[in-house]
Amino acid sequence: MRLFNLKSNKELRRKLRKTMTKAEVVLWQILRNKQIGFKFRRQFGIGPFIVDFYCSQLKLVIELDGEVHTILKQRQKDKVRQEFLENYGCYVKRYWNGDILKSTNSTVDEIYNLCQRLATSPEPLLHNPSCFLPLEKGRIPENPDPLLLRLGGEHKRRLI
What we know:
Layout: H1 10-18, H2 22-31, E1 41-46, E2 49-55, E3 60-65, H3 72-88, E4 91-96, H4 97-102, H5 104-120, E5 146-151, E6 154-159
Parallel strand pairs: 3-4
Antiparallel strand pairs: 1-2, 2-3, 5-6
């Protein structure tokens, strides 16, 4: 069964690439062509979902969130989406559009450092489910990321 870039989503992915938000355009100009050392794809399909940016080498998903992501119903959809991606083994990192536009350099530094961490980590990293989305617009929680430990095939989480 095919998991990536389903043919049924091809036109939607193409449309999303042509109508990117300003924040997506700014970040794409920095992520494209391995400028931070890793290949990223934009508007990439994983299962039924289309993620903003994806690095297959690191299984890193970067999602940019706008105003709509403050609505409870959308947050619930985002949670289902994130759980699907994490169950596949992806590390999902979310940023507010405003953070990309106002603090581009520090956000890119954070993404670069995360990429380095994922590239050198012996175990995949996952978000702490309790800090799934920022609690208020423009603020990213400072909770530590949990490390997924593989113990005898069982997956257990603990804080780093």
